[in-house]
Amino acid sequence: MNIPKIPLGDWLDALVRWVTVAFSGFFSLVTTAIESILDIIVNVLSAGPPIILIIVLTLLVIYTSRWPLGIFTLISLLLIDNLGYWDSSIQTIAIVLLSGLLTIIIGIPVGIWCAQRKTVHRIVTPILDFMQTMPAFVYLIPSILFFGIGVVPGIIASFIFAIAPTIRMTNLGIKEVPKDLIEAADAFGSSNSQKLLKVQLPIATPTIMAGVNQSIMLALSMVVTASLVGAPGLGADVYRAVSQIDVGRGFEAGLSIVFIAVILDRISQNLRNPAYENLLKKKFAFSILAVLVIVTAIVTGVIKETAKNKDGNSIGAQTNYHIIGIEPGAGIMAQANKAIKDYQLNDWQLAEGSSAAMATELKKAYDHKKPIIVTGWAPHWMFTTYDLKFLKDPNKSFGEVEDIHTIVRKGLKQDAPGAYTILDQFIWKPDDMEKVMVDIKDRMDPSVAADKWIKANGDKVAQWTKGADGGNGEKINLVYVAWDTEIASTNVIAKVLEQNGYDVKLSQVEVGPMFAGVANGSVDGMVAAWLPSTHNKYYKQYKNDLVDLGTNLHGTKNGLVVPKYMDIDSIEDLK
After folding, report:
1. Contacts of 97 (CB under 8 A, 6+ apart)
2. CA-to-CA dists, residue 304 to 25, 43, 308, 401, 533, angstroms
3. 173-197 per-position pLDDT tens digit
4. What end-to-end distance do the CA atoms of the chain give, in Å?
5. Residue 24 and residue 29: Cα distance in Å, rounded?
6. What's residue 226's pLDDT?
7. What number of CA atoms fall less than 13 Å from residue 533's CA on the CB side?
8. Which of 145, 237, 330, 535: disulfide with 253, CB 3.0–4.6 Å?
């Protein structure tokens, strides 16, 4: 069919851009409110040594769910602390609690409204269907644009993903209240609010709490996804382990998430009917807990405010002492952490996320001429799009100028000699790569952008294919990371291989799996190894199982990048 494509994506992009500008004040208010509440929760949970919270949670679990589960809670939390994931666990619990609080505040009233108004129910139900079936990753895209990189978009995405059970179960619980009870309430002259508060909600509470419990579990399941946009916690530890193929760390962080899930699940299930209510009335027990939380929040808030002694006009204060990073497994992130240590930037934090999230945050700041510091590398389309500069690096924390290498599996030369020759002879310049990158950034399909460059640079491509045997449909699997540079180079070389008779498959992975895949022979090669510094850790680990074909691009550079309108020139200026 030759029907033109409906520009649905373009319409949605235009809508999101308009919403971002028109409601920027509202989004800033929401961001500030969520961050403030989250800080209070984190301060309360982290007040004092870990053993205090461990004891409090253990006692709470014993009270709600009996002593065997209390022993499990004590042992599991002590293990989390021993493994070194206590701070991450605090962040994760805080994120889940805040997401759960938002689902209760918004979800229960909407569920009540749906139960009372059929029209509302008809409108809300398909929206909930959409929210539950749409991949959770999709929620992160507008969340980044609206709220920036960090914990807030992660919480918003978790809230959207998790709210449906609370709404559905609240609606179901109220509708299942026996009609004869409603009729009796009407006969005694009860108002609508009296019927709701004294008849419907008390009877529907078990069902509503089941929905809240499911929402909390769904919010917890989002912690790894939320880490893609910079949300801290155990999700970031899991993401980091996956990107670095660190099985042990991944298991430890995952096990910590399981422990927290079990504890929160049992507490939320039994809040209404605590196991030992006969020994201590729940109103009294929860009142003690509430007073303890409020007092701790006030004390920690006062201490934090007193200790705050930052220069409000400094670069650090203007950027909230945050450096916007990319994927946690990227070599440039290790270099950035090294720079923080080398330059003694003790107040600064490196925000983990993704390359796309970093680029989005840079665009938002640049459009409003706000200060921002990002981990950057060249070649990259952002240097063509924006007026940027690298901060000077006297200590060489980010290393010298690097090369990008082509690396293939052992045995490829014998299995596909023509493809091996093309990959071996593949070399181009940063200017060539940037042309492809700019086209992709302007929403051209990567394969189309690659084909465009190949047609305009036939002489260079001829040098790559010189003397190479043509293929007969042999499969070649190339692997790459989702960096703009690697998307460009991998699509170009893939298109050249296809034009020479090979059936090419592209696989997008993280850095660690990229090297591991070539080393174990599950993929044929990559053109994305930044050496000798950025990917040095992975290269050393797998070099005996790889074939390094040498440089395909010379002149890359890593470092901290800022807009030129910022009055700062060196990393030393961040002290």
Report:
1. 41
2. 27, 9, 6, 42, 39
3. 999 889 888 888 888 888 888 888 8
4. 61
5. 9
6. 83
7. 20
8. 237
Query: Among residues 477, 486, 388, which one has the least CA distance to residue 437?
Result: 486
Amino acid at 499: Q
Orientation of helix 67-83 relative to helix 50-65, angle to 10°: 160
Maximal C-alpha separation, the chain? 95
Q: What is the pLDDT of residues 296-347, one digit of tens each?
A: 888 877 776 655 554 555 788 888 889 999 887 778 888 999 999 999 998 8
Residue 463 · residue 491 · CB < 8 Å: no
Closest CA to 73 of 63, 58, 60: 58
Q: Which residue has the tokens 């605590």?
A: 274
How confident is the model over 238-261, as pLDDT tens digits? Answer: 888 887 778 898 999 999 999 999
Tokens in use for 567? 């009055």
Beta-bridged to residue 302, according to DSSP, are none
- What does the CA dihedral 25, 30, 35, 41 come to, rounded to 10 degrees? 160
Q: Which residue has the tokens 């796309």?
A: 356
| DSSP per residue, 446-489 | HHHHHHHHHHH-HHHHHHHHTTPPPPSS-EEEEEE-S-HHHHHH
Q: In this structure, what token pair is assigned to residue 438? A: 């700019």
Which tokens in the block code for residue 38? Answer: 């989250």
In degrees and rounded to multiples of 5, residue 403 shows phi and psi of: -120, 155
Cβ contact 57:73 at 8 Å: yes
- Report the alpha-carbon distance of residue 315 to residue 391 in Å, rounded: 13
Query: Among residues 400, 403, 396, which one has the least CA distance to residue 426?
Result: 403
Give the span between the Cα atoms of 381 and 388, in whole angstroms: 11
Tokens of 32: 């500030």
Tell me how far apart the alpha carbons of residues 348 and 333 are, in angstroms, rounded to a whole number. Answer: 14
Return the percent helix, strand and coil in the chain, to nearest 5.
65, 10, 25
Handedness of CA 493, 499, 502, 503 (dihedral sign): positive
Give 199's DSSP letter.
I
Single-letter amino acid code for the residue at 536:
N
Contact of 328 with 239, CB cutoff 8 Å: yes
Backbone phi, psi, residue 375, to 5°: -80, 125
Q: What is the 8-class DSSP label of residue 376?
A: E
pTM, two decimals, is 0.77
Residues near 70 by Cβ (< 8 Å), separated by ≥ 6? 58, 59, 61, 62
Tokens 């720079």 sit on residue = 339
Q: What are phi and psi of 155, to 5 degrees?
A: -65, -45
